[in-house]
Amino acid sequence: MNPRIFVLTMVTFAFGSGAFIFAGLLEALAADLGVTTAVAGQLQTVFVLTSAVLGPVAAWLFARVDRKIMVIVGLSLGLVLHIACALTPNFEALMVLRALAGLAGAMSGPAASVAAASLAPPERRGSALAMVSGGMTLAFVIGIPIGSVVGDLFGWRATFLTAATLSAIALVGVLFFLPRVPAPPKRAGGTLDLPAIWPLYLTTFLAFAANMTLNLYIAPIVRVGAGVTGAGVGAFQSMIGFGSILGLWLGARAANRDLGRSWILIGFAIQATAMTIHFAATHQVAPAGWPSATLVALGIFVAATALFSITPVIQARLISMTEGAPVALALNGSVISVGQALGSAMGGLALASYGVPAIPAVALAMSLAALMTLAFVFPRPQVAVGEKP
Hints:
Elements: H1 4-20, H2 26-33, H3 37-40, H4 42-61, H5 67-87, H6 91-119, H7 125-154, H8 157-177, H9 194-215, H10 218-226, H11 233-256, H12 261-282, H13 290-321, H14 325-354, H15 358-377
């Protein structure tokens, strides 16, 4: 694997950490700013909605711009906005800043993926994309738990300063170690074939919607299911990272072998299993102490494995099937953002209406609905010579 891919992994690590770094302090942040936890959760909703709306626009406007420049601009904007979030005086200002931060992610994330695909040989493209996605894994293993610990020690504002520091480190790495990566030339044949690739976008949307319904509200989930609060939440957040490692390994192998429908359906079945575990944990079926904590940790691990095993398969297929990879991946990023926004809103609605145990119930229902929907609409393997399954 080209070592320069690691530099791009730093980019997604910084982006992933900054996107979710406050999740473990969500209840403390809400109390300090005088809003409910469900309302505070909408900080993530505005972040991902901005990414969804502006991501494709940025990709289209800057389609011919060097990918390195796009990553630099996105990281620089994120750095400034994270510092501003730490200094914001009220919740309304924080909402605006988080919305703007979504633009930074929309610029740097897809550009990093396209750069990775350009730097890797075709037969290793799936692995390269999985490695860049692995930056999100590192975010959950290291970045976000560190943010939770720092926030527990110094207050929730310190988590955003931690995110700014990570962005600065990634920016230095890109400036000094990433070569120029010209935008890929558009292939002959016209525009994106949306009728052919819409099942890929639907898969992305459903996977992230179900997962984000639960992940953003991990602090109350851990509190109710395992009886753990404060810095201890970071240990449970790290299970997302460890599950992601396994998921990305599985997904990279599937992408390199060009697997599709069967793998994605298995992934959603695993995700539904994870939500069932969370449902049991929040209803306290296991004894208090290590048994309940283990059950919650297992649910988090399995859910992350499912989600991140699907991601490389979708990304590799999009790049191979589309003519304009930057726009295709930006649209996929937008679909991710819309899914996350729906999940954040659904989780907040469940929490506000029926309490913490309702969150995994909604996530389970969404996972099962996704599994049944994709079983009908996702293309079946073709048997004709020359066609891929």
